[in-house]
Amino acid sequence: MPEVTVNIYSRSYRLAVSTGEEALIQRCADIVDKQMKAIREGGKVINQDQIAVLAALEVAYEANKNVQKNSTDAQRSAAEKDAEIARLKARIAELESRPAPVAAPLQASGPDAETTEAIERLCRQCEQAIYANMSRGAVL
């Protein structure tokens, strides 16, 4: 089991930790150290035991506050997603309840009729040219 040495409030502590947890323990020790120094610098508490207890209490309080905030945020996010899902399901049901659109038959009219007519004319000319070449014995 790996060990890590941390410094908290000018004292060194050697701790056995799980593999891969060394950096996390060091960050936690830094938080506790900073909190203890902040309490001492506040000047209201002098006893080291009281400083340690107040620092631990403050760290635990902040951690709990973050857990509650994350839980509230997750609940809000889940509620928003549930509302979005319900809205989408309602929209799907609305679309499914509509009658299927009937495709209108294509009719040549307007500018498309002119284009179609021009294409048909060109096709006839091509066919005539091909048959004329075939009747003369030309190879394509």
Beta-strand proportion: 5-15%
Helix content: 55-70%
Roughly how many Å is the radius of gyration?
Answer: 41 Å
The N- to C-terminal Cα distance equals 85 Å
The number of strands is 2
Q: Briefly note the structural class of the backbone.
A: mainly alpha
Largest sheet: 2 strands, antiparallel
Low-confidence runs of at least 5 consecutive residues: none
Pfam families: ZapA
Protein name: Cell division protein ZapA
Keywords: Cell cycle, Cell division, Cytoplasm, Septation
InterPro entries: Cell_div_ZapA-like (IPR007838), Cell_div_ZapA-like_sf (IPR036192), Cell_div_ZapA_N (IPR042233)
Short summary:
This protein has 140 residues and is mainly alpha-helical.
Write the layout of secondary structure elements.
Elements: E1 3-8, E2 11-16, H1 22-42, H2 48-97, H3 110-135
Antiparallel strand pairs: 1-2
Helix pairs in contact: 1-2
Describe the structure.
There is one protein chain. It is built from three helices and two strands. It has 140 residues and is mostly helical. It has two domains: 1-95, no CATH class; 110-139. The protein has a two-stranded antiparallel ribbon with strand order 1-2. Helix 1 packs across helix 2. It is elongated and about 115 Å long.
Which terms summarize this structure?
2 domains; cell division; cell cycle; 2 strands; Cell division protein ZapA; 3 helices; Cell_div_ZapA_N; 69% helix; mainly alpha; Cell_div_ZapA-like; two-stranded antiparallel ribbon; 140 residues
